[in-house]
Design goal:
The protein is built from 15 helices and 14 strands. It is an alpha/beta fold. Strands 2-3-1-4-5-6 form a 6-stranded mixed β-sheet, sandwiched between helices. The relative contact order is 0.10.
Length: 411
């Protein structure tokens, strides 16, 4: 990702759902004014969810996700439908595409009806776009309106003629829930002119010529708060602290050097990690604190699921697949089994896991991260994140949370 690109996790995620040949790809091309999606009369042209980041007025930066048809059949078809349903857990808005000429009430009750119930269960705002409106009679529109319900969520459009496409874009923008403006990575904890030291190791795992996404975003949030971010490697942290004319408000460190940073950061300076900041921003930090404390009660034979939101090339010493398993085994002294997932492959059934350890989720949007946390909570499986787990394993969990306001009910 280029330095000036907006991360996908920070864009509005719009999912386009419907049957095969319902006009999903045609609608995407119509609302973007570009040929982003392949249009074909052949059923099943879109075989996997396809994403495209772009600017879409009046919403601004968005990610459009074109999904396979929900009526796909056969073994591979069922797998594709399952991938489509997983997209529901990450999008901010759903657009349900309906082909006006093939829709009838009996068939709508088998696909579109259950899908709209899922929208409601997941509290997912949605818009129904009935395509080929240029070929419909008023009576046909009334019949479909009776099924979907009249209201601003229902639009009769034509990807071919452009009918109501502008209105569809405005409807999508209007359906977007208002973001909580108080939700920040760290800016809400800072005052203008506060100094924040960011500890960024440069090792074999660091990308050449740039900083990783969490580091970029925390720097940006510090600047927006009027604070002064000072960036240093872990090896130069002691000298950086001495060079400051006054103590910094906080030291934010990469989780992999938590212990080293704690050893040289003055006790009266807040200390936490990038991963913990993202976990606080993306979901329920205190749920993940409880999860970290469960590490101490793991038993022989327990399975620990380690999950990353992104996919990347694994290197020697990888934090997820090597460092955490080694540290957790060493801390507990137990014979534990570890399994790993990355990207979108987060299992819906967590019953086989005694603990889930997740990354900070910087590449996921908040809706998807909250879904994963809620899934673990509902199944009674403790869940934590890399930074909180490493703070606990290094005996500095309490210190790493001092920057944040602990809820009244405690942990």
């Amino acid at each position: 990702m280029g330095m000036n690109e907006i991360p996908s996790a920070n864009r509005v995620q719009i999912g386009i759902f419907g049957r095969a040949n319902a006009g999903k790809s045609s609608i995407i091309n119509a609302i973007t004014g570009q040929d982003l999606a392949i249009i074909s009369g052949k059923k099943g042209t879109t075989t996997d969810p396809v994403t495209k980041a772009m600017e879409l007025l009046p919403l601004g930066p968005v990610v459009l996700i074109d999904t396979p048809g929900l009526d796909d059949t056969g073994y591979l078809g069922k797998l594709r439908v399952e991938k489509t349903r997983k997209v529901l857990n990450k999008v901010d808005i759903a657009v349900l595409a309906v082909d006006a000429k093939t829709a009838d009430e009996a068939s709508l009750r088998t696909i579109e009806g259950p899908l709209m119930r899922q929208f409601a269960e997941k509290k997912l705002p949605y818009v129904v776009a009935v395509n080929k409106a240029d070929l419909m009679t008023a009576a046909e529109q009334d019949k479909l309106a009776a099924f979907f319900g009249k209201g601003p969520h229902l639009l009769f459009v034509s990807a071919k003629t452009g009918q109501n496409i502008r209105e569809l874009k405005e409807c999508i923008a209007g359906a977007m829930p208002q973001e909580d403006g108080s939700k920040r990575l760290i800016g809400d904890l800072l005052k203008p002119n506060d100094t924040v030291v960011l500890v960024v190791p440069i090792d074999s795992a660091a990308p050449k010529g740039r900083l990783i996404l969490p580091q970029q975003q925390v720097i940006r949030d510090c600047l927006e708060a009027g604070a002064i971010p000072v960036v240093t490697r872990d090896t130069e942290l002691p000298r950086a602290l001495l060079a400051l004319s006054e103590k910094p408000k906080a030291v934010i460190t990469d989780s992999q050097v938590f212990k080293q940073a704690a050893g040289v950061t003055p006790k009266d300076v807040f200390l936490t990690s990038f991963s913990i900041l993202f976990s606080r921003y993306m979901g329920d930090l205190w749920q993940q604190v409880k999860g970290a404390e469960r590490i101490g009660s793991l038993k022989d034979g327990d399975t620990v699921l380690i999950s990353e939101g992104c996919t990347h090339h694994r290197q020697c010493g990888d934090i997820g697949t090597e460092q955490l398993p080694r540290l957790i085994r060493g801390f507990t002294g137990k014979k534990l089994d570890f399994c790993f997932t990355s990207g979108g492959d987060f299992p819906e059934d967590l019953s086989g896991a005694a603990l889930v350890v997740h990354c900070g989720g910087c590449t996921l949007n908040r809706r998807e991260m909250k879904y994963r946390l809620a899934l673990a909570y509902a199944q009674g499986v403790p869940m934590t994140n890399y930074g909180t787990a490493l703070a606990f394993l290094n005996g500095i969990l309490g210190r790493s949370l001092e920057l944040f306001q602990q809820p009244q009910e405690g942990l």
